[in-house]
Amino acid sequence: MKINDIKSQFPIFSKKINGKSLVYLDSSNSSQKPISVINRLNDFYKNEFSNVGRSIHSLAVNATNKFEETRVSVKNFINAKSKEEIIFTKNATEAINLVASTFGQQNIKDGDEIIITELEHHSNYIPWHFLRENKKAIIKFAPINEDGDILIEKLKELITSKTKIIAITHLSNVTGTIVPIKEIVEIAHKKNIPVLVDGCQSAPHIKVDVLNLDCDFYAFSGHKVYGPTGVGILYAKKKWLEILPPYIGGGAMINEVKKNNITYAPPPEKYEAGTMPTAEVITFNESIKFIESIGMDNLIKHENEITNYALEKLKKINSVKIIGNPKNKAGVIAFTIKGVHPHDIATILDEDGVAIRAGHHCCQIFHEKMNLVATARASIGIYNTKEDIDILCKAIENCIKIFNLK
Predict the structure, then answer these.
(1) Could you state, in order of their start, the residue ranges of all structural domains in the chain?
(2) d(CA 289, CA 295)
């Protein structure tokens, strides 16, 4: 598929917002869906629907097979060693909670330490905070500099004999910082410390190779990867899935149930209790096929080109301040306009059909570090063009005129 044809694959872009063509720059929040994904979800409900793993009739067998095909596709997409290392959840938040709960139950006690960073989304902070409350654990924050890069030497200094796990983002949803995960994993593993990676922002935008990264856990959400809501993915090394306890109990995750004893199914079923989001998981396979039809190298090249163009244009606008300047950056651009609250920026841009996000982006620790209450954020997806950036910049200049800042 040619990059120039991508936008036509997304029905949402035929919609007008306030009479203007939609410019969607909120992909870090959630990506739009191509027609192939929309059609696949509809087709499953119309022609194939059944629950998985419970019945032996034709519809159930087909649904189960399609469900497992997605597991194989995800395994290949992130280069996991086996499909049994892929667990389906309802989102990345649940995937991180699963690890925090099961790992914490087995390995965290009073005074033990968890290292995260000042870049983390709340989804990779609050689950560990629960352990701080319930297990009297200690959370340490690896600091970042003004550019939004993690200070690796400072992170190393935080590690002690009580450090039990490091949980860290792969790509910041505010600064676009691409974190050197492989280096951090190597540091951690020398001390026999496992590493969980929040891959929500990275999975749609950069190549993910969990074998190369050697991380112990990797979590991301389908809805950011041009897929449906309701699907999360947890990759975990098999050794962890075999020794950690189940997360929730119920149907499908058992082997044998007696009045005085219960044995559990092997992974991944051990962690997939109850009715799963069958249609959404099956549809997510179509999302992966969509990305593969473009080619990850082509996707990265295109998004880098649009991101660099956006940075160049925004830097020329007086009153606009771009937040962070990391060494390695993806298509997330947080900014402020002096004298204008980010919520007002987003409201005025919406009048021009430009969709951005404003607020703290579930990263209040980062904003506090930078002495900011909120920022505006434009985030790039595969469907964005240089024309979109031109419209964004024109809308920002209109915002500046409205507030008489020139």
Answers:
(1) 3-27+295-402, 38-292
(2) 10
Nearest by Cα to 270 from 247, 303, 293:
247
312 burial via Cβ count (<10 Å: 0-12, 13-18, 19+): exposed
* Cβ neighbours of residue 94 closer than 8 Å, sequence gap 6 or more: 232
**362 in catalytic set:** yes
The secondary structure of residue 45, as a DSSP letter, is I
Q: Which two tokens stand for residue 83?
A: 């499909």
- Out of 200, 215, 362, 363, pick the active-site residue: 362
pTM more than 0.85 = yes
Neighbours of 336 (CB within 10 A): 20
Token pair for 121: 């989304």
* Cα–Cα distance measured from residue 276 to residue 61, given in angstroms and rounded to the nearest whole number: 15
Nearest 5°: the CA angle 218, 224, 225 is 80
Single out the residue of 23, 42, 5 nearest to residue 228, CA to CA: 42
Task: Tell me which CATH code domain 38-292 carries.
Answer: 3.40.640.10
- Give the span between the Cα atoms of 102 and 129, in whole angstroms: 14
pLDDT tens, position by position, 223-252: 999 999 999 999 999 999 999 999 999 999
* Overall CATH class of domain 3-27+295-402: alpha beta
Residue that has been written with the tokens 């507030």 in this structure = 403
pLDDT digits (tens, 9 = 90+) for 122-155: 999 999 999 999 999 999 999 999 999 999 999 9
User: Would you tell me how many other CB atoms lie within 10 Å of the CB of residue 61?
Assistant: 14
Contact present, 240 and 258 (Cβ < 8 Å): no
Contact assessment for residue 253 and residue 231, using Cβ atoms and an 8 Å cutoff: no
The SS3 of residue 321 is strand
- The per-type count for the chain, helices as H runs and strands as E runs, is 13, 17
